[in-house]
Design a protein that fits this description.
CATH architecture of the largest domain in chain B: 3-Layer(aba) Sandwich
Strand content of chain B: 25-35%
Radius of gyration of chain B: 23 Å
Shape of chain B: globular
Helix content of chain B: 25-40%
Number of helices of chain A: 11
Strand order of the largest sheet of chain A: 1-2
Oligomer: heterodimer
CATH topology of the largest domain in chain B: Rossmann fold
Strand content of chain A: under 5%
Largest interface: A-B, 52 and 70 residues
Distance between the termini of chain A: 40 Å
Number of strands of chain B: 14
Structural class of chain A: mainly alpha
Number of domains of chain A: 1
Number of helices of chain B: 12
Number of domains of chain B: 2
C-alpha cells in the first residue's frame, strides 16, 4: 500500500495515507443498531441548531420582525380601535404573539424547500433511519426560533405595559400551547414547499393562506364588530380558537374546553399534513 | 449466512421524467467485490440508475435487486448495507467537517462519544484533521470529496455508490480519490462508480457498462472495450519539416491506417489499434533515419469510444480528454 504524499491546498493537511484508511475501516457487516426515530429526530434537530450557530443571520426574521409587528400594530391601531394604547396592549399582545409565530412557521417550509434541493438530503434519504425524522428534526430545531421570537414579543409587550393577570405560569402554559400549535401548523407549509417547485411559489401560496387566516380572526378586533356573515367564519378560524385560548391562559383562566379544541386542531393538522408531506417527500426526485 | 455472489441485478429498468425516458430498459449484472464502472456522457442516465439502486427513486418499470433485496419492497434493508456519495457533495455545507461526521455517526446509531471519536479517526486517515473545525463551504473540491467519502465509511458499506467521484477536482486530488477507492475495494466493499472519463474507468474498473440515452450500449472489461475501440492515437513530431512526408509514408505502411497531417507542419497523427504497432512504427522511423522530436500515444477519448460504438459522437459537453473536460463538467 503506497502513501500519496502531497502538500495539500491551503487549509488541508498533508497527506492521504491509504494504509491509514485501511486501518480505520470497520469490517463489513459490523454495524451498530441504527438510531431509533426519537434519536434520529433529535440528531436532525441538533443539525438545525448547528446551522443557527454557524449562520446566525437566519435569526433576522425571528428577532426584528416580531419587534416591528408588535410596536407597529400597537401604536397604529391602539388609539383607533381601543381608544388608548394602554388598553389595547392588553388585548393585542396575546394576539400579536400568535400572529407572529404563525407567520414565522411559514419560513420553516421555505427553508426546507431550499434544504431538500441540496445533496445532503440524498445522503439522508439513503440512510436506514426513520424517514420522517428528517422533517420532524427540522421542525424541532425551529422550535428554538419560535421560542426566541416569542420571548422577544413578550418582552416588548411588557415594556409597552402588557400585564397579564395569569402571571408567569399563565404565560408559560400559553407559550407551550402556542409552540405545540406552531409545530403542528408547520406541516402545512412543509406540504406546500415540497409540492411546489420554487421558493417564490411556496411563499406566494403560504401568504395567500396566512393573510386571511390571521386578519379574519380575533387578533386585532373583536369579531362582534364585523359584519354578521363574517362572524361565524372568524369564530371557527383555527387562529381565533388559538388566540382565544392563549388570551384565557394569559388572563389566568384555564378553560379545558378551548385548550382541548386547540389540541384537537393540532392532532388534525399533523394527522393530515404529516403523511401527505412524507408521501411527497418519498417520491421527490 | 448465505452471501449472494451478485451485488446488483436489474432487468428492464425504466425511469421516465415527463416525456424523457431517462433510463430506458437497463439490464445489468454486477458481481460482488471489485469496481464496476458506468461510463457515459452527461444526461446518459447514469445518475438516475444509481438513484434507483440506492432507493432514492422508484423505477417506473422493471426490476432491481441490490445485495439480493428488492429495491421496491426491501428498501430499508438495502439502506442498511449501502452508502451513497452523490455527484454534488452529500454534505451539509454550513456545518464543519467533524460536525458532519458526528451527525452521520449518530444517525447510524453510534453514541455521541463514539460518533466523535470515529469522526476524528476518519478525518485523520483522510488527511483532514486540521480542517475538522472548518465549515465545509470553505473546503476545496478535493477536500470535500474526501470528507464525502469518509462520511460513507463511518460504518463500512457492503456496496458503495460513487457518482462521478472526480468530476471537478484537480489531478492530484483525483489520484488521491483513486487510491482511496482501491483501498476500499481491498477492504471488501463492492463499488459502483460513474464516470465520464475513459481513463478513470480504465484505471479503476474491473468491468464497465457504457451508457447512452438511458441504455447500455456496451458491457465488458476495459480491455474488451478498448479492443473494440483501439488504443488511441499516435502523434509524432519530426525534427525537420522536410521529413514529414517520408515519416507519413512509413507510419502509413507500418500501422496500416490513414495518417492525418496536423496544422503544425511537423506533426502527424495516426489511429492505432494495438500499442505494439506504434512501437514498431517508431522503430521503423528510426531505421529510416527520420529524426523525431516528440511522440505520444494518447488514450482514446470518450468521444472516440462513442464514435466507434454508436457511430455518433457523445452528445452534450463530454468530449476530449479528461483534463480538458474536467472544468466544464457538471
Amino acid at each position: 500500500m503506497s502513501a500519496v504524499e502531497t502538500t495539500e491546498e491551503p487549509g488541508g493537511t498533508a497527506a492521504v495515507h491509504t494504509d491509514k484508511i485501511a486501518g480505520v475501516l470497520m469490517p463489513t457487516g459490523a454495524r451498530p443498531r441504527r438510531a431509533g426515530p426519537l434519536s434520529a429526530s433529535l440528531t436532525y434537530g441538533w443539525r438545525a441548531l448547528l446551522k443557527i450557530k454557524h449562520v446566525p443571520e437566519q435569526l433576522f426574521d425571528v428577532t426584528v420582525f416580531p419587534i416591528m409587528m408588535t410596536v407597529m400594530f400597537t401604536y397604529i391601531f391602539g388609539g383607533a380601535i381601543a381608544g388608548s394604547v394602554d388598553g389595547y396592549v392588553q388585548w393585542l399582545i396575546p394576539g400579536i404573539f400568535v400572529q407572529t409565530l404563525i407567520m414565522i412557521t411559514m419560513y420553516t417550509g421555505l427553508t426546507l424547500n431550499r434544504d431538500i434541493s441540496k445533496g445532503v438530503f440524498d445522503r439522508f434519504r439513503s440512510l436506514p433511519t426513520w424517514r420522517p425524522a428528517q422533517l420532524v428534526g427540522a421542525l424541532l430545531g425551529d422550535q428554538v426560533r419560535y421560542t426566541l421570537a416569542g420571548v422577544i414579543i413578550l418582552t416588548v409587550g411588557f415594556v409597552m405595559g402588557f400585564r397579564p393577570d395569569g402571571g408567569a405560569l399563565g404565560v408559560l402554559v400559553a407559550f407551550a400551547l402556542l409552540l405545540v400549535f406552531s409545530f403542528s401548523l408547520s406541516w402545512v407549509w412543509t406540504v406546500i414547499s415540497l409540492a411546489v417547485r420554487t421558493e417564490q411559489a411556496a411563499m406566494g401560496i403560504s401568504m395567500f393562506i396566512l393573510m386571511p387566516l390571521t386578519f379574519a380572526s380575533n387578533i386585532f378586533v373583536d369579531p362582534r364588530t364585523m359584519p354578521s356573515w363574517l362572524e361565524p367564519a372568524v369564530d371557527v378560524n383555527p387562529v381565533s380558537v388559538v388566540v382565544t385560548s392563549i388570551r384565557e391562559l394569559m388572563a389566568g383562566s384555564f378553560q379545558a374546553g378551548s385548550v382541548a379544541t386547540v389540541l384537537l386542531y393540532c392532532v388534525v393538522l399533523v394527522a393530515l399534513f404529516g403523511p401527505i408531506s412524507m408521501f411527497i417527500y418519498n417520491r421527490k426526485s | 449466512m448465505g452471501v449472494p455472489e451478485i451485488a446488483i441485478e436489474t432487468s428492464g429498468l425504466v425511469k421516465t421524467f415527463g416525456s424523457t425516458r431517462a433510463v430506458d430498459g437497463v439490464d445489468l449484472t454486477v458481481r460482488r467485490g471489485g469496481i464496476y464502472g458506468f461510463l457515459g456522457p452527461n444526461g446518459a442516465g447514469k445518475t438516475t440508475v444509481i438513484r434507483m439502486l440506492a432507493t432514492l427513486l422508484r423505477p417506473d418499470a422493471g426490476e432491481a435487486h441490490v445485495l439480493g433485496h428488492d429495491v421496491l419492497t426491501e428498501a430499508k434493508v438495502i439502506r442498511e448495507k449501502i452508502a451513497l456519495t452523490g455527484q454534488f457533495a452529500s454534505l451539509d455545507e454550513d456545518l464543519t467537517g467533524i460536525e458532519n461526521l458526528i451527525m452521520l455517526g449518530r444517525l447510524l446509531g453510534l453514541s455521541s462519544r463514539a460518533a466523535r471519536s470515529r469522526g476524528l479517526d476518519l478525518l485523520a486517515a483522510f488527511g483532514l484533521s486540521e480542517a475538522a473545525e472548518k465549515q465545509v463551504k470553505k473546503y476545496s473540491g478535493g477536500m470535500r470529496r474526501r470528507l464525502d467519502i469518509a462520511g460513507s465509511l463511518i460504518v463500512t458499506p457492503e456496496l458503495m455508490f460513487l457518482d462521478e467521484p472526480t468530476t471537478g477536482i484537480d489531478p492530484r486530488s483525483r489520484n488521491q480519490v483513486w487510491d482511496i477507492i482501491r483501498t476500499l475495494v481491498s477492504g471488501g466493499t463492492t463499488i459502483l462508480l460513474t464516470t465520464q472519463y475513459l481513463e478513470e474507468a480504465d484505471q479503476l474498473a474491473d468491468r464497465l457498462a457504457v451508457i447512452d440515452h438511458g441504455t447500455v450500449i456496451a458491457e465488458g472489461t476495459p480491455g474488451q472495450l478498448k479492443a473494440q475501440v483501439g488504443s488511441g492515437a499516435l502523434t509524432v513530431r519530426v525534427l525537420d519539416e522536410a521529413d514529414r512526408e517520408d515519416a507519413a509514408r512509413v507510419l502509413g505502411e507500418v500501422i496500416g491506417a490513414d495518417v492525418h497531417r496536423e496544422s503544425d507542419p511537423t506533426a502527424l497523427t495516426v489511429r492505432v489499434d494495438q500499442t505494439a504497432r506504434a512501437a514498431a512504427a517508431l522503430t521503423a522511423l528510426e531505421a529510416e533515419d527520420l529524426g523525431i522530436e516528440t511522440f505520444s500515444l494518447g488514450q482514446p477519448s470518450l468521444d472516440e469510444v462513442f464514435l466507434t460504438l454508436t457511430g455518433s459522437p457523445a452528445d452534450d459537453s463530454a468530449q476530449g480528454t479528461p483534463d480538458e473536460t474536467k472544468a466544464g463538467a457538471r
